[in-house]
Amino acid sequence: MLLLVNSSASSVTARARVVIGKALSADHDVALAETSRRGHATRLARGAAADGVEVVVVLGGDGTLNEAANGLAGTGCALAPLPGGSTNVFARTLGLPNDPIEATSDLLDALARGSVRPVGLGSVNGRYFLFHVGLGFDAAVVAQVERRPGAKRYLGHPLFIYSAFSTWFRHYDRTRPRFSVAHADGTVVDDVSFALVLNANPYTYLGNRPLDVAPTATLDRGLVAVCVRTMRFDAIVRLAAKALRGGGGLGRLRFVDERSDLASLTVTGHGPFPYQVDGDHLGDTERLVFRHQPDALCLVVPDPSLLPGAGAGASAAACVPSRS
User: Fold this and answer.
1) How far apart are CA 290 and CA 23, in angstroms?
2) Most Cβ neighbours (<10 Å): which of 184, 187, 204, 279?
3) Are 142 and 116 part of one and the same domain?
4) Which residue range forms the structural domain that includes residue 309?
């Protein structure tokens, strides 16, 4: 296996890297690589798969995981996440503890059981995503967070909360719809203020509390699109409160359009709008094309009960590492 480390990630320490490396090396042949720039994890993961590596263990944040997934999609090499960032949405979605050393034990148990499954990914303009894409206000908040990388490492969630209020009052045009969303059945929602397209749930975590936006978004089903048609303060507060309570049902709010099990959708801007992919701000755009790709990625799954339908297809055999 390859242990791929982003040493700049919020929770990655020299001690954790050494302890995790020793734990993995007890039963596996492990090589170590460190990322040094944006996009580096994609190239390292792709190269590892081409060289016959069976598992790429990623110690980093959600952005590093996204890059590695883009390098491994369509190969038989499995992705194994370890939480190394400030929020670690995807690792926690899989049931891993938020401490990377504790999570390593669960990961090793999963590998010993052969718990490796093919899961679906979303793609946006050809780039894969693991759990969500945010469009409009959500992406503008992420952009403000990324302007303060030093503070992000140490402040984490308080910085996100501060950035949300700062973006609301100073950095986002809330006076008009920003884009339209066209679905494959021909329906168009043309007055969207901001939106989330999800491949997994929860959308994110606020401390230990998940923001439960769309329980129907799972790695063995199609995409979920949640389109919010107003930026009124009272409406956004109701939306956030409902997500914190859990159970989904955002689509029952009259200002929300929610669709599940989507194979594709297209977003067209009323001018440029910001977007982010798995927590990484990617700038402004005027058109996004989303697709769902079933069985795109081999994934080490610590808790198989979380994905009861994954791996049911014939491609599951391609995700079983050989035993030494």
Assistant:
1) 39
2) 279
3) no
4) 2-120+295-319
Q: Is there a single domain that holds both residue 214 and residue 238? A: yes
pLDDT by residue (tens digit) across 93-121?
999 999 999 999 999 999 999 999 999 99
- Provide CB contacts within 8 A for 293, sequence distance 6+: 73, 120, 121, 122, 123, 128
Kindly state the percentage of the chain with pLDDT values over 70: 90
Q: Which residues pair with 293 in a beta bridge?
A: 121
Total domains present in the chain: 2
Measured in whole angstroms, how far is the alpha carbon of residue 217 from the centre of its chain?
12
Whether 302 and 115 have beta carbons less than 8 Å apart is answered as yes
Residue 180 sits in the same domain as residue 242: yes
**Side chain identity, residue 56:** V
State the pLDDT at residue 59. 96
| Same structural domain, 254 and 309 | no
Q: Which residue type sits at 186?
A: G
152 and 54 in a common domain = no
Q: Confirm whether 324 is domain-assigned.
A: no
C-alpha span between 177 and 188 (Å, rounded): 14
Q: What is the pLDDT of residues 22-69, one digit of tens each?
A: 999 999 999 999 998 889 999 999 999 999 999 999 999 999 999 999
**pLDDT the model gives residue 252:** 87
Close Cβ partners of 168 (under 8 Å, ≥ 6 residues apart): 137, 174
Burial of 187 (0-12, 13-18, 19+ CB in 10 A): exposed
Q: Do 105 and 162 lie in a common domain? A: no
For tokens 């030494």, the residue is 324
Q: Where do runs of H (alpha helix) occur along the chain?
A: 14-25, 40-50, 62-72, 89-93, 100-113, 137-146, 149-155, 157-166, 233-245
Residues 23 and 37 reside in one and the same domain:
yes
Query: Which burial class, exposed, middle or buried, applies to 200 when counting CB atoms under 10 A from its CB (0-12, 13-18, 19+)?
Result: buried
What is the token pair recorded at 161? 């909360």
